[in-house]
Amino acid sequence: MDDKVKFELEYPIHASPALLYTYISTPSGLSEWFADNVNSRGELFKFIWDESEEHAKLLVKKSGERVKFRWVADEGEDYFFEIKIQVDEITKDVSIIVVDFAEDDEIDEAKMLWDNQISSLKQVIGSV
């Protein structure tokens, strides 16, 4: 299997960091935009889309700032996906930073998927 390539995306978003954090860190918040349904038991999250489900372990949860997950299928690898909330100190503009990994020939597709997911998040919170 080829090594995955790390990529980072930034999305300006008009919402308070506290509100955003709820949507990126809780099963109910993630169910609103990231997956059809999300359940958690401790550090283990189950993401459900249509007929498929994926399990991820919560690696980092820093209140008001970021969450970092590793897909169970990638256990033992250095791959993860992270969603960070960034606030510009001067302008107070809020952005979501996504860090993820994909196969070299799937990066464009992975970026498009994140574009769609973040677009859904913006609709849910009224930041369109």
TrEMBL record:
The species this protein was found in: Aurantibacter aestuarii
Top-level taxonomic group: Bacteria
Chain ranges of the START-like domain: 1-126
Name of protein: START-like domain-containing protein
Family annotation (InterPro entries): START-like_dom_sf (IPR023393), START_2 (IPR045736)
